[in-house]
Amino acid sequence: MKNFAISTMSLFVISLILVSCGGTDDSENIANAFAKEECEREENTFWNGSECFNPCKYNPCGSHGICKATGAETYECICEDNYFSNGSRCQNPCDPNPCGHGSCKSTSAENYKCICDDNYFSNDTKCINPCEDNPCGSYSTCKSTGVETYNCICEDNYFSNGTECVNPCDNNPCDSKSDCIPKGVDTYECECENGLFWNGKDCDSTPPCDERNQTPCWDTTTFYMWSSRSPQNLTWNSANSYCNNLTEGGYSDWKLPTLAYIESFYNTTNLNIDKKSVWWSSDKECKSVEKHFALFFNSSWRVCNSYSDCSGCVYNYDDSTNSVRCVRW
Questions:
Q1: Which of the residues 130, 186, 232, 282 could staple to 256 if both were Cys, CB 3.0 to 4.6 A apart?
Q2: 27-40 and 2-20 are packed helices; what angle lies between their axes, rounded to 10 degrees?
Q3: Over the stretch 49-64, which tens digit does the pLDDT of each residue have?
Q4: CA atoms within 13 A on the CB side of 1
C-alpha cells in the first residue's frame, strides 16, 4: 500500500508540473495509466486497453473447477478429479451416469468407460443384459454371456433350441393311451399303457419284434409288421397263398415279402428274430448278397444264412419247402 501511495502521488505531482509548465493536457492518459496499474495489482484482472476486466468473474468453469485468468479475455479451468476441461468449462461425461446398471469412469471431457454390474456387459455407451426380456421363455433361467449372447438353463424335461427352452411333449404328439417322455429338442418316446406297445405311430397290442417273441410284431425301425412264422414249411406257391389268405392280429392284408423287405428285416441292428430260418421271398431274380446270409433263385427267392444252407441257384421250388413270414405295411 505504501508503494501504491507513492506511485499515486508521483503521478499527481507529474500531472501538476505538466499543467503549470503549459504542457499538453494528458490527464486522460495519466488516468488510464493509473487505472491500469491499479488493475494489474488485483488477482485475475487484466487491463484490456480501456477498462479492468476479469474473465473469471462469473466462474465460467462451473462448480467443479477453479478459473485461472491468463489474459483480459482468456482463462484456464483447473478441474476437480474425474472432471475435464472442454476448453471453456469443467465437465464429467459420467454426470449423470449414462451406464445404467454399472459405475461410470470418465477418461476425458467427452469419453468414459462403464464398469458393469454382474450379468451386464458394456456396449461402449451403457451396460446391457440380453436376459432382461427373458428370451428363454417361462421354463428356464437366462444366463447372459455378452452384450447380445446368453445361455438358457432349462428346467427338467425342457431343452434349449438355441434361443428358448422347449418340450417336444407340450403338444402331446403321442396318442391318448400313452405318456410322452421328452428326450431332446424335437425327440421323444411314447410310453404306452400296460399291455400295449408303441409301433412308431401309436400304441398297439402288437409288440415290437425282438429275439424273444415269435408272435406278430412291429419292426420299429421300418414300421413293417411281420406275422408269426408259418406253423409248417411251405412250397413257394403255397407260401403265396398262405400270406394272401392269412388273418392274424386282426389284420388280413398280409403279403409274401419282397427281397427288400426281408433284407431290411435282417439289417435292423437290434433285430435277430428268426434269422436262422430260410424264408421264401416274392421276388424273381437271381443274386447273392453277403450279409451273413445268401440269396438264391429258382423261380423265386429264398433266404439262407450261409452258402452251405443252399445249393446255388438251382432249387426245386415246386417240391422244396421253407419257412414263411408274411409282411404288411
A1: 282
A2: 170
A3: 788 888 888 889 998 9
A4: 0
